[in-house]
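Entry 12.
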Amino acid sequence: MIGRRTARGFVLAAVLLTGCSSGVRPPKPQPETVIAPTSAAPGPATEAAIALLPGMPPLLSPTDVYAGDRELSPAVAGQLPRVYVPNSESNTVSVIDPATFQVVDTYPARGVEPQHVVPSYDLQTLYVTNDLPLGGGGLLPIDPRTGEPGEPLPVRDPYNMYFTPNGAFALVVAEADRSVDLYDPHTWEQVGAIAVPDCPGIDHMDFTADGRFALASCEFAGRMAVLDVVGTDLVTMIDLPGGRGSMPQDVKLAPDGSTFYVADMMADGMYTIDAHTFEPTGFVPTGKGTHGLYVTRDSAALIVTNRGEGSLSVWDFAQQRIVRTWRIPGGGSPDMGNLSADGRVFWVSGRYDGEVYAIDIVDWTLLARIPVGRGAHGLTVWPQPGRYSTGHTGVMR
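Predicted 3D structure (tokens):
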């Protein structure tokens, strides 16, 4: 096991147990080819077969970790329907009314390089993660009932942020420090850290079905890091088949809990990783500059953004293949986003074009192209269906 466990680490583990709240590019397969997993996939996650992270809400389905993402929680009653867009180069946040496709507000991010807008575990606050905080204020909280920002919070180097599936900790992805820093999500006191020295460019992650482990991407190393959520430790590093020619981005768990999908911007597709053994099992080509991964509201498919060619690919979980690739009319640079509450409209930022695209994924039409600030990045659509948020741009369970 890589990493070190200190006395503080044992304290953090106890809290979790109680449930308190670049190189040569590799040859690529032809676009029409799908390389299926090379080893037999384990059966779907079942609550009887696994021990959930203590304090984590029970699974609603033995075959779908996203079964709770069908309807809005009472916790979001009265919250404004809005799309929040962090503009990394303009250092602003644009606020869009999804009913009119109009920008209704723009305010300073109170930091440098705002990267993502992250819903809190309890769905009561949205946080803008400022990668280069000014005056120590790395997180800008937004009240989703008013859409208004509050006072910045002193969190260091938050490129991205997640929450443990039991809500015990906020996991601040401190990219520059090569660390995942643990904070109390109520007091915002730092209570620990998981060092990942061999993971330059750590940025995205997702959790196993039982909530006990996280798989994180190392953008500038062509590797993945496996984190022990209970022991707050680094378990191991995984080398992707593309090696240093890989550039892993977003990570998403399949609904049945068997497989992680890892978007790779240089390999132009998704790697598959066994969610039980953490072994790479295959590769699926999608399009140039593969970047973001989003499970549809019915858990039937995965929407993949191909930033380098302005397209979206659709992976069908049942058929285990790409069933559609759709290009944005007039081009674009789709990066990060999320679905509307009813699952019909996919909202995604145009990273290189200073715009946001609203795409009807039933009729596959572009509904709107909305100008925002420069470097539009990790937008979130709010409110989102689900019981709790594990972070990023609204990964709900």
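Annotation: Confidence is low (pLDDT under 50) at residues 1-11, 17-48. Helices lie at 7-18.
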